[in-house]
Write a structure and sequence with these properties.
With 131 residues, this protein is of the alpha+beta class. The protein has a domain of 50 residues. 31% of the residues lie in helices and 9% in strands. Strands 1-3-2 form a three-stranded antiparallel beta sheet. The protein is flat. It starts with a helix and ends in a 44-residue tail after the last helix. It comes from Pristionchus entomophagus.
């Protein structure tokens, strides 16, 4: 019921660690549900659990499906498709570019430490000579 409610609210999946806090023996219950849930591994040995809703959230008619399968764009490249869609009245989707290239290392300078001048021993002033 927790997974179904979470799915109906549009919140997506639940981590297994969070589910085990709510429900005792969560792993046994998940095994009994079988194909009704989707279990995806995540980072740090955790699992995300989604409710596998058998009913589709959107429908399409058979005419659209047949038209979609008839169209072949193998002979067109990206530029020709963009020109054709512009003349058809379809605006291309603009993807915002990244402002900073994350692959390059940062160019910030290292801070200089204040180095103190080397203190000479006072009792050796008459022996030491500067060259």
């Amino acid at each position: 019921q927790v997974l179904v409610k979470h799915h109906q609210d549009g919140k997506g999946g639940i981590l297994l660690s969070e589910l085990s806090e709510c429900i005792s023996q969560a792993e046994n219950i998940l095994e009994s549900l079988g194909s009704k849930v989707l279990v995806l591994p995540t980072e740090k040995n955790n699992k995300a659990i989604f409710w596998n809703d058998p009913t589709p959230s959107c429908y399409s008619n058979s005419d659209l499906k047949s038209l979609w399968r008839e169209v072949s764009l193998d002979h067109l490249d990206e530029e020709k498709i963009a020109i054709h869609s512009f003349y058809s009245g379809i605006a291309p989707m603009n993807v915002p570019s990244q402002k900073k290239n994350m692959d390059e290392p940062s160019t910030s300078r290292a801070t200089r430490r204040n180095t103190t001048a080397r203190v000479q021993n006072d009792h050796l002033d008459d022996v030491l000579e500067e060259y």
